[in-house]
Design a protein that fits this description.
63% of the residues lie in helices and 1% in strands. It has 401 residues and is mainly α. The chain is globular.
Length: 401
């Protein structure tokens, strides 16, 4: 580490103001602060000093995502092997070739095989995302002359988890660049965006390339096999009345097809526990989404429909399908794009839950719902906070008037 420290000390004079490479200082500062604790400290008012800075908060979120990352790799391989065992074949991709060289079996009983095969799909998408997003971050920091912040550390981890395994890498680059530039940088960077950048990236890919975002990573033996999590909701909406033989427990554990990191509610709950324990994630938002989902689904169940089977999907199934759990814990609680006030967070969450179920049930063209619900409520978060603040002002005025 001392050798690395000495290297930074030799480079620093070359990027200081007035030096030959002063425009590269944001790049230098970003790499140095990633490797070492920044030497700057606040020593006087009016600064608020706290042990939780941006870097620590982002690292905590990444730690909370580790269970989802591990499950993304395991379940991707598990689903491939499940279809092979049913008589299907894998896609003719380099991942299949490399996995064949490992000598590991194409069997769901091989935990190591499941993990390795899935890692061959997840890790390249993750590396492409971090490279594309990091490039955009560096370019904007150099042009604007500000330091590289740690915001993309989380965004770059979220994006691969909400994408299907076999998505083309060039689409990953486009989606990541769109999410970073249009979703965040044009508004001023981290802390200035009103939309969640990761969801902005996925929304762009979903509407630009809906066929490729279906999530197929294998050639199935039957039409029901090899489809994404959203397709299970779609099949139910089309009148099948079932979820292709998967149980609620399978969906809770995450042993169903879908976007790589969204399938396991158990893994999401482990991450939620860390976010709640460290107070990085707002419990009000999570509780609001849960209440809004359960109440809306229960009301629609009571109404029923002879033509729309989604009206009869039980409330507890909504909690384990698609990206509901992942969106509730990691997307809806984004401290920048969500509501700020405690009461506002609760109503913000309720709105997401209500909209998610309404989109799933009433809109036959898009039975997933969670992504659009969060993005829609992102736009209303400032209005919700304004309403809460004004209500508090009126209440205090009445009390002291």
């Amino acid at each position: 580490m001392q050798i690395l420290r000495n290297l930074f000390d030799r480079i620093e004079p070359l990027v200081q103001p007035g030096a030959k490479y002063e425009k590269l200082y944001p790049l230098y500062e970003g790499i140095e602060s990633f490797c070492f604790t920044p030497p700057e400290r606040t020593r006087s008012g009016p600064h608020v000093r706290d042990v939780l800075d941006l870097k620590r908060m982002m690292v905590l979120v990444v730690f909370a995502l580790i269970p989802c990352i591990l499950m993304a790799m395991f379940n991707t391989g598990y689903q491939i092997h499940r279809v092979v065992e049913a008589g299907g074949t894998t896609l003719d991709t380099w991942q299949s070739t490399v996995y064949g060289l490992t000598g590991l079996p194409l069997a769901t009983s091989s935990w190591i095989g499941n993990f390795v095969h899935g890692a061959l799909y997840f890790l390249p998408v993750y590396l492409v995302t971090m490279t594309a997003g990091g490039f955009c971050e560096v370019i904007f920091s150099l042009v604007r002359g500000h330091a590289i912040n740690e915001g993309f550390l989380v965004t770059g981890t979220l994006i691969p988890l909400i994408l299907p395994p076999a998505i083309p890498y060039w689409q990953v680059v486009l989606g990541t660049a769109f999410g970073v530039v249009i979703g965040k940088e044009i508004f001023g960077g981290t802390g200035m965006n009103f939309l969640n950048p990761a969801l902005t990236a996925r929304a762009f890919l979903f509407f630009a390339y809906p066929a490729q975002l279906s999530g197929e990573v294998w050639v199935a033996a039957t039409p029901a096999d090899g489809q994404s999590g959203a397709t299970w909701l779609a099949s139910f909406a089309e009148g099948s009345g079932h979820l292709a033989g998967f149980t609620w427990t399978d969906a809770f554990l995450g042993l169903i097809p879908g976007s790589m990191g969204e399938t396991s509610v158990l893994a999401v709950l482990l991450g939620a526990a860390l976010l709640l324990l460290t107070r990085v994630g707002a419990w009000q938002t999570m509780a609001g989404v849960l209440v809004g989902t359960l109440i809306t689904a229960a009301l629609l169940n009571s109404v029923g429909s002879d033509t729309n089977p989604m009206m009869s999907l039980p409330p507890h199934w909504h909690l384990v399908l698609g990206g509901w759990a992942f969106g509730t814990v990691f997307m809806a609680t984004d401290p920048v794009s969500s509501a700020f006030t405690s009461t506002g967070k609760l109503w913000y969450g309720v709105g997401i839950g209500v909209l998610c179920v309404l989109i799933r049930v009433i809109n036959p063209a898009y039975p997933e719902g969670m992504m659009l619900a969060i993005l829609f409520m992102n736009m209303f978060a400032p209005l919700i906070d304004h309403a809460v603040v004004q209500a508090n002002i009126r209440r205090r005025a009445a009390r002291h008037g």
